[in-house]
Amino acid sequence: MRDFYQNFLNKEKLYETFYDEKEQRLSFAKLIDYLNYSYDGLLLSDTDGRIFYVNEAVERISGVKNQEMLGLTPEEMQERGFIVSQSKKVLKKNPLTIVQKLKTGKEIFTTSRPIKDEKGETVCYIATFRDISELNELHQEHTFQRDIDYQELQELRSRFLMMDDIVSTSAQMRTIIEKSIKVAQSDATVLIHGESGVGKELIAKTIHNSSSRSKKPYIQINCGAIPESLIEAELFGYEKGAFTGADRPKAGLLEAGNEGTVLLDEIGDLPLNVQVKLLRVIQTGDFYRVGSTTPRQLKVRFVAATHRDLKEMVRQGTFREDLFYRLNVVPIEIPPLRERKEEIVPLAFHFLKKNNEKYQTNKKLDEATCRLLEHYSWPGNIRQLENMIERMVIMSDEDTIKPCVIPDEVLEHRKNEGDLPEPSILMNETEIIPLAELRERTEKKMIARALERYGSIRQAAKHLGVNHSTIVRKMQKYGIESKSTSEHGV
Ligand SMILES: Nc1ncnc2c1ncn2[C@@H]1O[C@H](COP(=O)(O)OP(=O)(O)OP(=O)(O)O)[C@@H](O)[C@H]1O
């Protein structure tokens, strides 16, 4: 028996494990018993292939009592119907692996190897018995889980990318959103700077929505829209009798935002005297209603936004330096749309989708239209694009929005940009060419340009002051192809 253990690595441990206290010797029965704990089936067969040992897992997997199996060869098992079929295909020769289908419907992977003695003669065979159905189920479960994980990941990603309806296909915008989500976890004051219509309010709302205050009030105050004489009372509230007409006490906008987030939009328009009071609230949380001597406490997260250059205002003495630094704890700069041109088309499709829902339409954007939108400089930024798409959805008679419905300012800009050359530069300045050739060159260029700009032969003909058939004829003559059928789907 001691020889039997010779190959084990930790012989002492094994000796201890298989030692039978009662019999005062190593126990072979104990070892065999322990093999029953294997999840996979184990079989031993003699040189004729007759099974002389099976562990309990084989019974569980095959559904055949071990006693019934002992002494049988695989062929005899097939005759008795325990095995329905066995693949003659040898998957691997050494070890030999075959697939057996059992009467229970299960598919089994049996891998067997000969056990040899010291002379190299085969003593018996040892085989493992694995339920592939179980493996297949596990694999399916794993694939299913992987699909769920992938789906969740994609959902999270698109939720992040489309968070609160925010398109963020540019790297700049994604960095801004990441920064907003990060800063939302603290109460730090944020100063958002950017041109009008770039999405400052949207970012302020994102900060609020991603913070622990999301269920608390979100108050947006446009400091530029409140008359100077009223702003203090509007922000801080007032007591009865504080001024003529104050016939009852009223809480201010800051109090309305208590425990939540207050966006001070157009902060650069705040008068200097109110700036001092605002600084105190931000620093201490203390404030007084107009006409009151009792201090009140506020727990507000402040976000300020402006399109103005506050640093310059500080230099000019129109904005308090201390307030500027207090607000500018985390600065967020949103670039204008012309500096993230890759976002123009995704934004256009985003607004197209919204307007299709709003007006119950199914309009699409033509490729030429998208190209024109991409080339425009968008001085009014995203707000201008949003309004223009709505206008185009309303104005377009056809399902495909073509360049002919693009407002003049966009088309004019394209012309001014010079990427469509004027007829005068169709030839070089020293060149002399026959007038007929010049006419042909000009005609060809002009027709191609009109087709690109207006997207249809009918519209091009209308703008060139000729009829439809003239354009068709000249297109054939000059080999111009119409792109009017190319379009983007939504
Ligand atoms: N990344 C974006 N994805 C989708 N819509 C956007 C995005 N950025 C801005 N918008 C939309 O554009 C419009 C203008 O944005 P917003 O009001 O936030 O700009 P703003 O910078 O605060 O403008 P203003 O300075 O004039 O107050 C809004 O309707 C907003 O929903």
From TrEMBL:
Molecular functions per Gene Ontology: ATP binding; DNA binding
CDD domains membership: AAA, PAS
Keyword check for Signal: no
Tagged with keyword Membrane: no
PAC domain sequence ranges: 92-144
GO biological-process terms attached to the record: regulation of DNA-templated transcription
Annotated Gene3D superfamilies: 1.10.8.60, Homeodomain-like, P-loop containing nucleotide triphosphate hydrolases, PAS domain
Transmembrane portions of the chain: none
Keywords, sorted A to Z: Aromatic hydrocarbons catabolism, ATP-binding, Nucleotide-binding, Transcription, Transcription regulation
Stored InterPro entries: AAA+_ATPase (IPR003593), AAA_lid_NorR (IPR058031), Homeodomain-like_sf (IPR009057), HTH_TyrR (IPR030828), P-loop_NTPase (IPR027417), PAS (IPR000014), PAS-assoc_C (IPR000700), PAS-like_dom_sf (IPR035965)
Superkingdom of the organism of origin: Bacteria
Location of the Sigma-54 factor interaction domain: 166-394
Stretches assigned to the PAS domain: 27-71
Protein's recorded name: HTH-type transcriptional regulatory protein TyrR
